[in-house]
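Team,

Forwarding the record for the chain on the shared tracking sheet. I've put the sequence and predicted structure together so nobody has to dig through attachments.
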Amino acid sequence: MDPKNLAPLQGTFVVVLVTLVGQGLTFAPLVRMLGLRANETDQARVRNEARSAAVEAALARLDEVAAAEPDSAVAVNTTRTQLLARLARYRGRLDLLEQSGSSELPTSPAYETALRVRRTAIDAQREELVRWRDFGRLPDEELRVLERELDHEELLLPRRASS
């Protein structure tokens, strides 16, 4: 290619680069300065729609596993039951979000109670495991493994109930 023909391409490249980088670097500070925030209800709706889609994909994959591995029927059915319960929970949250006409996250007393009860149960499990360790029934290493499992379970619980 002739060097004379490259000059317009280089100019175009510089203009595109400056436009993209300039806007990219200034957009976030501008949004913060204006005090704009994403609608929490819309964010929760998108998350729960994505969760539902992911569970539906998992259910479809289970059908493939069941067809390919007939001896996996018990495991597939157990997992399917758990996933269907999760899907029902996500759809229930979506229904609650759809019924809410505001930008604030709606709360469900039943859901709030379920989260509080689940956290209480995790705390009780943790306390019992420490008692087992204190009485010499559970080695420290095994306690740490089990505590990590409980930590993971607790981290999966939403901080805000309706998310």
